[in-house]
Amino acid sequence: MAPTKAGKLLLMTGTTVLAAWLGACTPTISTQGNMLTQTRIDQIQTATSTRDDVERLWGPPSTISPFDPNTWYYVGETTSQKGLFKPVVEKRQVVKVTFDGTDAVTAVTILDPKEARDIAFSTRRTPTAGKEFTAFQQFISNLGKFNSSEMNPNKGTFPTGDTP
Length: 164
Known about the structure:
The structure is a single chain. A hairpin with a 6-residue loop joins β2 (63-64) and β3 (71-81). This protein has four helices and five strands; from the N terminus they run αβααββββα. Strands 1, 2, 3, 4 and 5 form a five-stranded antiparallel β-sheet that branches. The protein has 164 residues and is α+β, with helices and mostly antiparallel strands. 25% of the residues lie in helices and 23% in strands. It has a domain at 27-116: 2-Layer Sandwich (Beta-lactamase Inhibitory Protein, Chain:B, domain 1). The longest helix has 21 residues, at 5-25. The chain has helices spanning 5-25, 38-42, 51-58, 135-141; strands spanning 28-33, 63-64, 71-81, 88-99, 105-111. The model has no long low-confidence stretch (mean pLDDT 83).
């Protein structure tokens, strides 16, 4: 007995749902930033390597310290996400490189992620002068500002004769 159209459709739908369900179980792994391997970190030697060597081997830094331009940070993290769930950080790495006045590397340090702190954002607002208007209030306040009686109806110019 040959399967009917409805049977084929049901089989195809079931197969598609099963494939999607199994595919959702496979985690999506992504890396952001610059995850340096120990081999790449060992390529930089203190007192021998320079700022140019670091940038040539590792690329530009993720960030430069705002308080000391001789301190570079290379930040990277690997996350995994299953289906629609929130991504989970699998590995986080911060490598700090410091330079002296001659651009020679003085230290390469792998910072401990356990020492990281979350910084709470301030919810306060800085007061400003003036009033806050809604979009509707701004629209209504502009209705009377452009008076057509000031324009010369014969020439389409302003009373002074200047063109707009």
